[in-house]
Amino acid sequence: MRAIFKRELKGYFISPIGYVFLAAFYCYAGLMFYVTGLSEGRTHMDMLFSSLLIILVVIVPILTMSTMAQERRAKTDRCILTSPVSIWSMVLGKFFAAFTVYLMAISITLVMALICAVYSPPDWSVVLGSFTGLALLGAGCIAVGIFCSACTESQAVAAVLCFGVLMFFSFISAVAAQLPFEFLVKAADKIAFSKRYYAFTYGLFDMSNLLFFLSAVFIFLFLTVRVVEKRRWS
Hints:
Blueprint: H1 2-14, H2 17-36, H3 46-64, H4 69-74, H5 77-81, H6 87-106, H7 108-119, H8 124-150, H9 155-176, H10 182-191, H11 193-201, H12 207-233
């Protein structure tokens, strides 16, 4: 797994993908930090963290679209599938490489919190809780993206598919709220990434939300392994 992790992490910065992802996140986060905080003289960062869900839905597909699809298209996945490396090691190596790049991106929010602290101490419980939620949300989104990438050999299709799935899980509760069926509203709230994430931005650390995102990561990585295993024996 370590070798795959190093190769994938290096690959993000050999190609433009890593730079594009980081630049897009930094630009959006910087803009929202100014609009929701500095321009109004506020040191509360809850609005900043709440706004980051939208950009993740857009740019995480860019980060993950090539994780599996590129190797499948180039047929280099056959070398890995016939090597002594387990499929789980391959998938986890790719996941942690993407997640490391993601952590590089969201770490800018901690720098912003330190900038706010120069003027007035922010609510650190909200900042750290929101950062934890942002990390968990990103882990879930990355797992979804890797699964989508494993389902096709086209990076463009993988990105579009990931975007659609993330849109579904992020905003299903808002759509369900317009329906007259209460059981659908409750079910949508249970699986909506947005509902689970926003709880962290309020400074609420609920163990059920932590377990939800960890379960989502495991489920989508497990599905990825199953897709790759099916291709190995086909």
